[in-house]
Amino acid sequence: MDESNTLNILKSAFLMERQGKALYETAQAQAENKDVKAFFQSLAQEEQEHMDILEEQFKAFMKTGKFIASGFGNVAGAVTAPDILSDAVKKNINAAGFESTAITAAIGFEEKAVTLYAQRAQETTDPEEKKLYNWLSVWEKTHLKKLMEIQESLMARVWEDNSFWPF
After folding, report:
1. Which of 64, 129, 162, 167 has a CA 20 to 30 Å removed from the CA of 114?
2. Bigger pLDDT: 165 or 17?
3. Does the pLDDT value for residue 87 go beyond 50?
4. Among 116, 123, 121, residue whose Cα is nearest residue 132
5. Helix, strand, coil proportions of the chain in percent (round to 5)?
6. How far apart are CA 86 and CA 90, in angstroms?
7. How far is CA 25 from CA 28, 36, 66, 113, in A?
8. Residues 160-167: contacts with CB under 8 Å, at least 24 apart
9. Cβ(133)–Cβ(118) under 8 Å?
10. 117 — pLDDT class (breaks 50, 70, 90)
11. How many helices (H) and strands (E) does the chain have?
């Protein structure tokens, strides 16, 4: 295992999670609707959890040169994020406001995270590192799916509001 690459991946992952958290906190502060605020707060809390996990693994790797077993063996298809999406959230996000822009930016963050985590899970030979990154990849795919649903809902609403439908 290339120690330098492993540490760089952990640092990159931590930074991505921190940036995502900052985006979600800003969106939460800007949101006027309580359901939308709760949605962004939930995402920010989950990113904090991911940061905590990555920090714990970073410290363990620095100390022992290994990842610690943390119950990420239940991975892939079995792990799902809590249901953070509701019709109230979709209905109350301002399609022309900061919330919508935050959704678009968040999609980019989540796509990047999914790619990084899936790639690292495939590359590593450490079974605990593989479990961690598979778990994070699945979790971020869940975030991405939810954000994409909101994006599609916003697009449909804009089309409907502006009578862009050809029928």
Report:
1. 64
2. 17
3. yes
4. 121
5. 80, 0, 20
6. 6
7. 5, 12, 32, 18
8. 161/95
9. yes
10. very high
11. 5, 0
